[in-house]
Amino acid sequence: MTRVEIEYCVPCGMLNRAQDVSEAILKQFGEDIDEVALVTGDAGVFVVRADDEVVFDKEEDEYDVDAIVRAVKPYVGAAA
């Protein structure tokens, strides 16, 4: 099963974004996801990983919850 990790910057106040992404992933994939973990970080980090592969990095990608969910989808299908 797929493990998703959302690493977010605590000092930057990105907890709400991390929660929004987590909720969207769980709503979309439900029981097909093994775990969605929120991991605290700093230095402006906001990175989403699916099975240890980076699928979103705010340094390179525009923040879009739907796009992040779409980026996770291939990992969910591969694990099924």
UniProtKB/TrEMBL annotation:
Coiled coil: none annotated. The keyword Nucleotide-binding does not apply. Keywords: Redox-active center. InterPro entries: Selenoprotein_Rdx-typ (IPR011893), Thioredoxin-like_sf (IPR036249). Gene3D superfamilies: Glutaredoxin. It holds the Pfam family Rdx. This is SelT/SelW/SelH family protein.
